[in-house]
Design a protein that fits this description.
mainly alpha; two-stranded antiparallel ribbon; 8 helices; 2 strands; disordered N terminus
Length: 178
């Protein structure tokens, strides 16, 4: 399973750099996007971590709220910037709470989560969208925090299946279906 996900990521990443001339699997294939989301796998693996459910310090949560009217008025660059800012906030918070004193499975799960967040960051930052002004990445909310890994995973999943998915649907007009 991990090898197939890695191969899919390599395939998508190789397409990202040519995004202006042909469709990107990540944008045009909802199944590819769903297979990149490993939140459910991490939640299942969490049950084997002997009670690891909280962090020693709070983790900042990504901005998941989506006000449809204001979202639709944002440019593609602004939407991407919003999502990238939320992913960066989350990955830095997760890195900060991963400590050597945690059980081995907890460290492993947090590393998987970091790699998954980083995969989304790589795809989004290398996605070529219309030639326009570079929009700085800023959070669209005041981040909340939690010490619960389950809450972190829930909010991360909301970001992926909410804002990120809405953004991909916005870009689907670039897809050519045969």
């Amino acid at each position: 399973m991990a090898l197939s996900r890695f191969l899919l990521l390599c395939m998508v990443a190789s397409e990202v750099f040519d995004a202006e001339t042909k469709p990107i699997d990540f944008v045009c294939n909802r199944g590819a996007r769903r297979s990149l989301n490993i939140v459910a796998e991490i939640e299942r693996a969490l049950s084997d971590c002997n009670g690891f459910t909280t962090f020693p310090t709070p983790v900042q949560l990504p901005c998941t709220e989506l006000h449809v009217a204001s979202w639709e008025n944002k440019s593609h660059q602004e939407k991407r910037g919003d999502i990238v800012a939320s992913l960066r906030l989350l990955i830095e918070s997760v890195k900060a709470v991963r400590v050597p004193t945690q059980p081995g499975c907890a460290v492993s799960l947090l590393q998987r989560l970091e790699r998954n967040i980083n995969n989304y960051l790589l795809l989004l930052t290398h996605l070529q969208i219309s030639q326009g002004p570079v929009v700085s990445t800023a959070l669209s909310c005041v981040p909340r925090s939690t010490q619960s890994l389950s809450t972190v995973l829930l909010n991360y999943n909301r970001l992926i299946s909410g804002k990120l998915e809405w953004f991909m649907v916005d870009l689907e007009d670039r897809c050519t279906y045969q």
